[in-house]
Write a structure and sequence with these properties.
The complex is a heterodimer of chains A (about 150) and B (about 775). Chain A is an alpha+beta fold and about 150 residues long. Chain A contains five helices and five strands. Chain A folds into two domains: about 70 residues, Beta-grasp domain (Ubiquitin-like (UB roll), Roll), CATH 3.10.20.30; about 70 residues, DNA polymerase, domain 1 (Orthogonal Bundle). A seven-stranded mixed beta sheet of chain B has the order 10-11-8-18-15-16-17, with helices on both faces. In chain B, strands 13-21-20-19-14 form a five-stranded mixed beta sheet, sandwiched between helices. In chain B, helix 13 runs parallel beside helix 17. The chains are: A alpha+beta (about 150), B alpha+beta (about 775). Bound molecules: FE2/S2 (inorganic) cluster (2 copies).
Chain lengths: ~150, ~775
């Protein structure tokens, strides 16, 4: 039995310990904001926070998550109004939207340590995330806007 | 049957021809639609799939209020809530915002009291096949008419209630106003009387004049921003049903491979795996039907994935097992070195080239590409009591419905296809093979089944963008004057996915090759034979991807050979302003339509070509010096009835990595309803062109796709992506063209031309990949 918290709610899991957190969140908890895009840490669509830091849920087997604290896009902000979420809406970043929860979770991790990120910081933090619709210029602008420094 | 009828726009043309033969019931593309349809709002069994306008604008229809549906696209409840049914699929282009804003604008609805419902697949909505950049260019008049119809009914109802003439009243933001007295009646209060009124005759409908428009032509925030940014938006894999199983399928690794033997024992031992089910393969070429294979049915996705990996299958590769990309490329190159079937012919290009003092020849190669949309294919189906219900991220719910009905032998009335948001589509999700798989499995096991494709499945069993080779030849005269133009193109045809052994036809050249706007007297544009060895499909911009790359690159090569500035050369090649009906000017072959519309409706307007080129030249800093390793490239291309020019500014690093710090785009596509979404489509097109040009390739060995995931099917990422995409939309009242696709074709050539300017290395083969390694040490 593995116990952990997800978005502040205590949870326990006694299924296949090799199951990645991604499928636990999606299939067992119906937290479907965390997306499957590649399953091999290449796209970032599955990004959540593990102990406050961005992590790829497709790479985290449940067996490694005893006592872990997980936050998903659904739990990033109680009203869905994290500065990044607001900036994303103001700049109308998403196209199809599929990659955006992962992008926002990664950007939240960036802003935590680097409140005023420059282009290089953004490139480094966000390069692991694919947006096939090509919203990168707006993601860059929205991160800067959320950091209080208009692009 | 013309095999080319399967091209998305050709299929539209066929529908149009059929409609033209039917007795006329009125004007406009939707005249065959029921204008008054009292329909039950689609029940979703407790599942909310259509997410309403986001945030504070979200309004739920009053529980139990009986909605009045004066038009298939519009319902009004007695509490005033307006429900607009979006019949096209949302995949990032913004149609769930753009379509409703047209209707709400024309009907004078208060946007905050409108909600958007997503249509199920049904003929009554008109074409739902969301591809070919058609939503606005085909439906703008119909959407305006829908809004104007409801507005007229509201005005009639109020006038009747007040006992005044309809000319004395006007609708304004969800109410009707009596001009003389200032009295008002709300839309909700008018529903009861409006519903018994006769439909206003078409002549009575008044479409707004430009100055009266509230939203059309202005920025409108997308309606799904809140759900998308909070993770509550419903994509394909997010729909859940009680008792639902998950299936992951082992499909044939080679097109047409068949199963020799299967060892299921290890798969069945995986915890959570419940059953193994065979899906019979469709006979080649298979069209929209599943490839067949072995499905692992499990309690959750992880178990299904593990179970599938544990299957041991012995395949007989069949005839396509010999398909190998290197040898196939050589065969395409042989093909383009002999004359092909002409798609456009004027003067005598062969004679003019033979007589020319100076000719330039170049050949280009573009590999197979896959859509690689971020959401891998997935679909949920529930078969119960003789009915099939599916939920899927589909671009074409009506085609899905019809295909499932035929595949399962059901009456179409017993099949319902709900449309979720699409995590990207790019043409892949027009084909319902993956939805048929879920339908088949649910029927087999008697439980709801969600089929989940892995990323690897998605890349290896796609409908690929065709691999191609191009031979271009031009006669170059004094002052850079081009006297003759020959273009031979060879690529396996989309038609081969629908008709066995079909070869490309001259008609397909109209997608970006035969409509070049050049002022050249002797021209020959030909298609050469190329057999298909895998499923070929349409991928954003379709043949215009490789045609745009080859043509745009060759023009740049000619400019440099002539010793001229590429922008000046391009403008000279476009020549004087003129309007050309290509159907009367050299176009040969059976094609009567151009992107689904008669050629005559869309003459080639060279002033518009010139306009977009001059715009990007003016705004991009064209001509200002850049250090070695940086360069600008220019290209222009017309596709999907839109004219787009691009100046790409690249930076090539010492290791050959290409960055695109800046792109300047101009697009002239007639009237643009939602400029911010059009701009975002151009931004996205630059990034997709980077992927196509710099990174991506699908290759085959032993008939099998060699790539597996984003590690070896690379796409553009943040670091290389533009910091600025400066887009000018040349707004006009002209007939709307496409917006989703036409940005990609010129961008690929502009990037390649910029690489030449930066490094002196000419790219004739895509992707650029590692071709530029060590460029600084090469003699240029
Ligand atoms: S799904 Fe985890 S990184 Fe792509
Ligand atoms: S918005 Fe579509 S993948 Fe990023």
């Amino acid at each position: 039995m593995i116990t952990l918290t997800v978005n502040g709610v205590p949870r326990s899991f006694d299924g296949d310990p090799t199951m990645p957190l991604l499928w636990y969140l999606r299939d067992e908890l119906a937290l479907t904001g965390t997306k499957y895009g590649c399953g091999v840490a290449q796209c970032g669509a599955c990004t959540v926070h593990l102990g406050g830091e961005p992590a790829r849920a497709c790479q985290l087997p449940m067996s490694a998550l005893e006592s872990a604290e997980i936050v998903t896009i659904e739990g990033l902000h109680p009203e869905g109004e994290h500065p990044l979420q607001l900036a994303w809406r103001e700049i109308d970043v998403p196209q199809c939207g599929f990659c955006q929860p992962g992008q926002i979770m990664q950007a939240a991790g960036l802003l935590k340590h680097t409140p005023k990120p420059g282009d290089q910081d953004i490139d480094t933090a966000m390069n692991g995330h694919i947006c096939r619709c090509g919203t990168y210029p707006r993601i860059r602008a929205a991160i800067k806007a959320a950091a209080g420094e208009r692009a | 049957m013309n095999t080319n009828d399967f091209l998305p726009w050709a299929r539209r043309a066929a529908a149009r021809r059929a409609a033209a033969k039917a007795p006329a019931t009125g004007a406009g593309p939707l005249s065959e639609l029921p204008r008054r349809a009292f329909l039950k709002l689609a029940g979703l069994g407790g599942l909310v799939i259509a997410v309403g306008p986001g945030g504070s604008r979200r309004v739920e229809a009053a529980e139990g209020a009986s909605a009045w549906e004066p038009h298939v696209y519009v319902g009004v409840a007695s509490d005033g809530t307006v429900t607009i049914t979006c019949h096209r699929s949302e995949m990032g282009q913004g149609i769930r915002t753009t379509m409703p804003m047209i209707i709400a604008d024309e009907m004078e609805a208060d946007w905050s009291r409108c909600r958007v419902e997503q249509a199920v697949g049904d003929k009554k909505y008109g074409s739902q096949n969301t591809d070919g950049s058609t939503s606005i260019r085909d439906f703008l008049p119909a959407y305006r008419e829908a809004g104007a119809t409801v507005r007229a009914l509201m005005e009639d109802a109020a006038a009747k209630q007040w006992g005044v003439s309809a000319s004395e009243v006007f609708a304004r933001q969800h109410e009707v106003v009596h001009r003389a007295s200032g009295r008002t009646l709300g839309f909700g209060a008018l529903v009861a009387s409006a519903r018994s009124l006769p439909m206003p005759p078409p002549a009575r409908l008044r479409i707004k004049e430009p100055a009266e428009r509230r939203w059309q032509g202005k920025r409108m925030p997308s309606i799904d921003l809140v759900p998308v940014t909070t993770g509550t938006a419903v994509f394909g894999a997010d729909v859940r049903l009680p008792g639902m199983k998950v299936a992951v399928i082992a499909r044939p690794p080679v097109w047409g491979a068949t199963i020799v033997s299967v060892d299921e024992s290890a798969a069945l031992k995986v915890p959570g795996v419940e059953r193994i089910v065979r899906i019979p393969p469709a006979a080649l070429p298979g069209a929209y039907l599943p490839l067949g294979g072995v499905a692992v049915i499990a309690r959750n996705t992880w178990a299904a994935l593990r179970g599938r990996d544990a299957l041991k299958i012995n395949w007989d590769a069949g005839a396509n097992g010999a398909h190998e990309s290197g040898a196939y490329r050589a065969s395409l190159e042989t093909s383009i070195r002999s004359p092909g079937a002409p798609g456009r012919s004027s003067g005598d290009a062969a004679k003019a080239l033979a007589a020319a003092g100076k000719t330039v020849v170049a050949e280009y190669h573009v590999p197979y590409l896959s859509h690689a949309q971020m959401e891998p294919l997935t679909a949920l189906a529930r078969f119960a009591e003789g009915r099939l219900e599916a939920w899927a991220p589909t671009q074409s719910p009506y085609d899905a419905r019809a295909t499932i009905a035929e595949y399962l032998g059901l009456d179409e009335a017993k099949v319902t296809v709900h449309v979720t948001l699409l995590g990207g589509g790019f043409g892949r999700k027009s084909k319902p093979d993956y939805i048929c798989e879920a339908a088949f499995l649910s029927k087999e096991i008697g439980a709801p089944v969600r089929v989940q494709w892995s990323r690897e499945d998605d890349l290896r069993n796609s409908y690929y963008h065709s691999v191609s080779a191009h031979h271009l030849e031009a006669a170059l005269g004094e002052g850079g004057k081009v006297g003759a133009w020959l273009h031979r193109s060879a690529y396996p045809s989309i038609s081969a996915t629908f008709a066995k052994d079909a070869l490309p036809t001259p008609d397909e050249l109209s997608n970006g090759a035969s409509d070049v706007p050049w002022d050249v007297p002797d021209m020959s544009i030909e298609v050469c034979p190329a057999p298909a060895h895998t499923r070929i499909g349409w991928y954003r911009s379709v043949n215009a991807i490789h045609h745009g790359f080859a043509i745009g690159s060759f023009v740049d090569e000619l400019a440099h050979t002539a010793g001229m500035d590429p922008a000046d050369f391009l403008l000279q090649l476009i020549g004087p302003d003129r309007s050309v009906d290509l159907y009367k000017n050299g176009l040969v072959g059976a094609s009567e339509t151009y992107y689904g519309a008669p050629w005559a409706e869309h003459p080639l307007e060279t002033a518009r070509v010139r306009g977009v080129v001059e715009s990007v030249r003016r705004r991009s800093g064209w001509g200002a010096p850049l250090p070695r390793g940086r360069g600008r490239g220019i290209a222009v291309h017309r596709s999907f009835l839109a004219y787009v020019a691009v100046v790409a500014e690249v930076e090539v690093l010492a290791d050959g990595t290409v960055l695109l710090p800046r792109a300047t785009v101009a697009v002239d596509t007639g009237f643009v309803v939602n400029p911010d979404r059009a701009t975002s489509q151009m931004e996205g097109a630059m990034v997709m062109a980077m992927s196509n040009t710099l990174h991506s390739a699908i290759t085959f060995a032993d008939g099998r796709v060699q790539q597996s995931n984003y590690g070896d099917y690379e796409v553009a990422r943040m670091r290389a992506a533009p910091h600025a995409v400066d887009v000018e939309i040349i707004q006009s009242e002209g007939k709307s063209g496409g917006i989703g696709e036409p940005g990609v074709p010129p961008a690929g050539a502009a990037i390649a031309n910029a690489i030449f300017a930066a490094t002196g290395v000419r790219v004739r083969e895509l992707p650029v990949g590692k071709q530029l390694a060590g460029w600084q040490n090469r003699a240029t």
